[in-house]
Every structure is written in structure tokens, then in C-alpha cells.
Amino acid sequence: MNPEQFNEIAKRIETEVARVIIGQSEVLRLTMIAVIANGHVLLEGMPGLGKTSLVRAFSQTLDLRFSRIQFTPDLMPADIVGTDILEEQESGKRAFRFQAGPVFANLLLADEINRATPKTQSALLEAMQERTVTVLGRTYRVEAPFFVLATQNPIEMEGTYPLPEAQLDRFMFKLNVGFPGLDELTTIIENTTADKTTKASKVTDARTLLEMGMLARQVPAPSQVTRFAAAVIGATHPDGADAPDLVKRFVRFGSSPRGAQALLLGARVLALLNGRFNVALDDVKALAPAALRHRIMLNYEGQGEGIRTDDVVTAVLGSVKA
């Protein structure tokens, strides 16, 4: 695959998904970047804003094995990963057989993930990080490509549980899904109340998607850009050399090294989408909010003052010299 083919396929994916999802162009673009990079995405927004429809549209365009889990407070880890069941064989003997759970898919929609308890939320951790599932001492591999697109309601809503920090760190991006504008809302109402439904068409398949991800990893990143990304991560920590006052006052923990990995890998994909075969500083800066907003933990004073992690990321980008 060459960069021209990459761009053509990516544009067709974006066009097909945009037929179903009105507006939300930035969310759509960033989700596509993560999918090409084989990363996981956490979509946060109020109910009814099209988060689930966005994930379904991507599954249709990519023609992947799709699975959906509706998270509820009574959902158990075995409902996600699967379990051994005892069944009788033709010989009359009984034996255990592994019944795979819905996590064994290419694209997993974890719908309203913060409706479940932290124990159940964490059932996805091994699959998200290692692409394997361990049940009763036996390990099963999840077929590539594998990525989780999870939706969650704002944690202030009734009956929600904040995701554990370790699991948040496994998401490449966290995207905020905002309310549509008047024109977009009008179009949404017209499209969804008529007697016909819009469905995204198939654009590519799993093999091509993996090839796109491999091509993106070949995009060179100058040492200056890599060092800038590392400096940005360091500046999110209160004791970092370039940490701005906002970080020193209101941040308890900064980003892990996974934040830098998300920045550089996403920047490689973004560079290709912008028609370049090299990573620029602007690519890293453009992806910083999505890659870092869920990896920065505020202290009690920061929470009390209503500080947003996006404000922290902006301050960090302003304090780190390119």
C-alpha cells in the first residue's frame, strides 16, 4: 500500500460514516485515526448524541466482526470474556468447553461502559492491552485487528461509576461528543423521522485496515518531534521541568508513557491524512487534547476549582518549547 491508496481509502471511510453521522467531524476524524492505529477510543457525551450510531457506522464501512456489550450494574466479567461450560459428549462423558464471550470480535462496542461496576469494567483490561483473554488459567488470543470503542455518560449522571485509572490509560483517545448545532440538529431530525434509514456502505476490510496501520508506523518522526512529545508528557507532572503553574497547583498525577505513544502513533496517521510522509509538530499538538485529557488526574483543589484537563493540556503546550 502507498500513501495515495491510504488517503483514498481513508476519505471514503470518512465520507461513508458522515452519511450516517451528521456533524461531529472532529470526533469522526479522531476516531478514524485511532481505528487505523489499532487503538481504543472512549466517547463521552450525553445520551442520544449518536455515539452508538458512530460506532455502528464504522463497523459497516470496515466490514469487521462486530460485537456489542450493553453495560449494566449487574453485568459480570464472565458475561464479557466468556467461561467454561460443562456439557455432555457423545460418549456419555462430561467435559468442559470454553464458551467465548462477546469480547472475541474485531470491533467491540462497549456501550455505556461506566454503568457497570469497576470489577466488570476491568474485565476488558487484558484484551485491550495484550489482545488476549485468560479464563481459568488458560489464555485465548483475540483476532487482529481488535479495538474497543466505548461510550460513557458524564460521570455526574445518576448510576455511573468512574472508570479506573488503569483502564482509562488503555484508551488511545478520549473524545467529547458535544450537542449538535441548529442546522445539524434539523438535518438529524429530518433523516431519522423519515420512512427511510441511511446505512454506511462497506469500504474496506480487516486486511486492508491492518496494512494502513503498518504504513502509518513507517512514517518517520524527526527527533525534534519525538523529543517535543516526550517533553509534553513530562510537563503534565507537577514535578516536571517544564510544568506550568496550572499543573503544579492543580494536577496530582500526569500522563503515563502511553500518552506519548498515543501522540506519536496518532500523529503518524494524521500526517498521512494531511498528505505528508513525515510527522510535524502541529500533528502532535492537534492530537494532544484527545490523547491526554483522560490521562491527567486533578487534585482535590483542581476538582473544587472546576479546572478542566483540556485547560491543563493547553497550558502544557504553551509551556513546552519546540
Short description:
The chain is α/β, with parallel strands linked by helices. It folds into two domains: 1-214, 3-Layer(aba) Sandwich (Rossmann fold), CATH 3.40.50; 219-322, Magnesium chelatase subunit I, C-Terminal domain (Helicase, Ruva Protein, domain 3), CATH 1.10.8.80. The protein is built from 15 helices and eleven strands.
What key attributes describe this structure?
Rossmann fold, alpha/beta, Helicase, Ruva Protein, domain 3, 2 domains, 322 residues, two-stranded antiparallel ribbon
Structural write-up:
This protein is an alpha/beta fold. The protein has two domains: 1-214, Rossmann fold, CATH 3.40.50.300; 219-322, Helicase, Ruva Protein, domain 3 (Orthogonal Bundle). It has helices at residues 3-20, 25-36, 51-62, 78-81, 118-121, 125-130, 165-168, 182-192, 206-217, 223-235, 245-250, 257-273, 281-292, 300-304, 309-319, and strands at residues 41-44, 66-70, 82-88, 94-100, 107-111, 132-135, 138-141, 147-152, 173-176, 251-253, 297-298. Strands 2-5-8-1-9 form a five-stranded parallel beta sheet. The model has no long low-confidence stretch (mean pLDDT 89).
Structural class assignment: alpha/beta
Q: Helical region count?
A: 15
State the end-to-end distance.
32 Å
How does the overall form come out from the CA principal axes? globular
Overall CATH class of the largest domain: Alpha Beta
Q: List the uncertain runs.
A: none
Taken together, the total number of domains comes to 2
Strand content: 15-25%
Order of helices and strands: HHEHEHEEEHHEEEHEHHHHEHHEHH
Q: Which strands sit side by side, in order, in the main sheet?
A: 2-5-8-1-9
Question: CATH superfamily of the largest domain, please?
Answer: P-loop containing nucleotide triphosphate hydrolases
CATH topology of the largest domain: Rossmann fold
